Amino acid sequence: MTVRSDVAAITDRIRERSKPTREPYLDRLEAAAARGVHRSVLSCGNLAHGFAACAPNTKAALSGDTVPNLGIITAYNDMLSAHAPYETYPQLIRKAATEVGGVAQVAGGVPAMCDGVTQGQPGMELSLFSRDVIAMAAGIGLSHNMFDAAVYLGICDKIVPGLMIAAMTFGHLPAVFVPAGPMPSGLPNDEKAKIRQLYAEGKVGRAELLEAESKSYHSPGTCTFYGTANSNQMMMEIMGLHIPGSSFINPGTPLRDAMTREAAQRALAITALGNDFTPAGKMIDERSIVNAIVGLHATGGSTNHTIHLIAMAGAAGIKLTWQDISDLSDTVPLLARVYPNGLADINHFHAAGGMGFLIRELLDAGYLHEDVRTVWGDGLRSYTIEPKLNNDGTVSREPAPAVSGDEKVLTTAPKPFQATGGLKVLTGNFGHAIIKTSAVKPEKRIVEAPAIVFDSQEGLNQAFKNGELDRDFVAVVRFQGPKANGMPELHRLTTVLGVLQDRGRHVALVTDGRMSGASGKVPAAIHVTPEALDGGAIGRIQNGDIVRLDGEAGTLEVLVTAEELAARPIVVPDLSANSFGMGRELFAGFRQLALRADEGASSFGVAA
C-alpha cells in the first residue's frame, strides 16, 4: 500500500525544509562510520582503561577489532516503578551478547525522574530540562569510543526523548531501544480520577486518596494510563527502534526477558562488523518521524511530544514544525481509546490487538510509510505481528489479529472513533498553542468566557479552595514557560477544573506551561508561544478580558483590539522563588538558553 498523497506531501515538505541541516548531518555520520571499529583508534593505554574491569576472556575479545561491543545506556533506579525492572537487564544483555560472540558493557547511566512524584512540587521545574541532561549523560557514556552499537534502557516521560537525542547525536552507531513494559492493571483510571476530584472537593480524606493512588500505581512497570511514557513506547515501535511487538509486554515475564535478549542480539547483528549495518541516524529519516506523528494522532497520545518530537528530529538534522504535526492531525483518524481518552488502560489496548493491529490498520489505509528502515531489517510491515513465547524460550511472531479484541478500545481505519487525531495547533493573537481534543467532549471544545489571570498554579488552587471560581471562566496561568521556570506540567489543575466543569461551568485553561501527557477532559490551550517572559501576548491578558478558545476551528483569541493589547505592559512577577531549592539553582543556564516550545525547548540548540 502506498502512502496517502496528503501524508506524502507533508513528508516531502519536511524533507525539503530539512536539506540544509539534514545533508550535513548525514555527511558527519558517514565520516564517523567510515573510521571503522572505533576501538582501533584507541591507544593501548586508552583501551586498557576501557576493559580493565572485564573478565580475561572479555579483555581478549576487546583487544582486537573483530568482536562487536554493545554499549548499554541505562536509566535504572529502584525508586521508580517503570525503571526498577532494568536492574537485571545488563546481566541478561551480557549473557545474550556472549551467546552470539559479542561483548556488552554498561557504558553509562542516566537520571530518570518521575513527573508523578514531582507533580505540583518544586522538582517539577527540573523535569523538562532533565531530557537535555539525559541526552548529555548518554553522550558522555558513549564518548569513550568503545562501542559498535548501543542499547537504550529507558521508558518514561523525558527519558526516551533524551535517549533518542543521544542516539541521533551518535547516529553512526546502530541503536535499539529496550522497553520494560507496563505494570499489570490496578484500580481503573477513571475511579482514581473520581477519588482525586472528591479529595479536591473535601469529600474524602488523604487516607482514601492515598489508598486509591496506591492501588493504581502498585508494582514494577510503567503507569497504565496513556500518558507520555506509553506514548514513548508506541513511537519507538512505530519508528522501528524496538524489535517488533515489544512495547507493552509486562515486566518480570518470560516473554519480556526473551525479547530483551533478542533485542541485544539484534543490536549486535546490525553493527558495521556484519552485513546488515544499520546506523541509527541514517535509519531514522523524515518518513520515520512522520510515522511517529501519525501514531501519536491515531492513539490520542501525549501533548508533550509536540515539544519532544521537534527536539528529537532536530538532533537528526530534520526540521519539524507544529504546523506539520497539526496538518497530520487533520488527516489521521483516531483508532484507540485509552485513558484519559477512554476508560481502558494500556494493557487493555495490548490485549485488543495492540501495536501490531494498529500498525497494520494504518499501513493498509495509507497513513504510514511502509518502506522505512527498521532495526529488524526490513520495512514496517514486519511490525504487524503479535509476539508469542516458544517452549524453548525463544520468541515467535504471528500475524496481528484480524479483528479487534475490543472495538471500544481499538478500532479499524474505516470505522475510527473520530475522523481526526487528538492534537491540534491553535493560532490567534495569543500566538500559537497546542490542544488535545481527543479526551474532550465535542460540546466542551469551544469556550468563550472572561479571563481570570494567575501567575502560578498555586494561585489557581488557592482561589478554588476559597470558593472564588464557581463560575464560567478561562484560567490564564502564565510565567510557566521554559525561560520562566522550566515549563513544569500543571496536571494538578486538571482535577480542580474538572470539578468545576462537572458542576456545569464552562471552563478552560490557557497557559505557557505544559500539562501532563494524560491531558484530560477540560479544554486546555497549552505551550502558548511566545511565553510571557519572552514578550508573549499571554503576559498582557487582564482579568475580565473575554477569551475565546475554539478547539474545532483551531483558534485562540483574546477579544481586545490589537492596538490595546500591544499597548499593555507585561508586568513580570517576582520569579526568584523559581531559582532556588530542589536543585533549581543548578538549572539557571538551561532556563536562559532554552529555545521556544515550538522549537523543542532545548537548552543546547539541537533543534534544526
Automatic annotation (TrEMBL):
PROSITE patterns: ILVD_EDD_1, ILVD_EDD_2. It is an enzyme of class 4 (lyase). Pfam families: ILV_EDD_C, ILVD_EDD_N. InterPro entries: 6-phosphgluc_deHydtase (IPR004786), Dihydro-acid_dehy_C (IPR042096), DiOHA_6PGluconate_deHydtase_CS (IPR020558), ILV_EDD_C (IPR056740), ILV_EDD_N (IPR000581), IlvD/EDD_N (IPR037237). Residues 68-381 form the Dihydroxy-acid/6-phosphogluconate dehydratase N-terminal domain. Pathway: Carbohydrate metabolism; Entner-Doudoroff pathway. It comes from the Bacteria. The keyword Iron applies. Its EC number is 4.2.1.12. One of its GO terms (biological process) is Entner-Doudoroff pathway through 6-phosphogluconate. Transmembrane segments: none annotated. Residues 408-601 form the Dihydroxy-acid/6-phosphogluconate dehydratase C-terminal domain. [4Fe-4S] cluster binds at residues 156, 223. GO terms for molecular function: 4 iron, 4 sulfur cluster binding; metal ion binding; phosphogluconate dehydratase activity. GO terms for cellular component: cytosol. Keywords: 4Fe-4S, Carbohydrate metabolism, Gluconate utilization, Iron, Iron-sulfur, Lyase, Metal-binding. It catalyses: 6-phospho-D-gluconate = 2-dehydro-3-deoxy-6-phospho-D-gluconate + H2O. SUPFAM superfamilies: IlvD/EDD N-terminal domain-like, LeuD/IlvD-like. Its cofactor is [4Fe-4S] cluster. The keyword Cell wall biogenesis/degradation does not apply. Belongs to the IlvD/Edd family. Catalyzes the dehydration of 6-phospho-D-gluconate to 2-dehydro-3-deoxy-6-phospho-D-gluconate. This is Phosphogluconate dehydratase. The gene is edd.
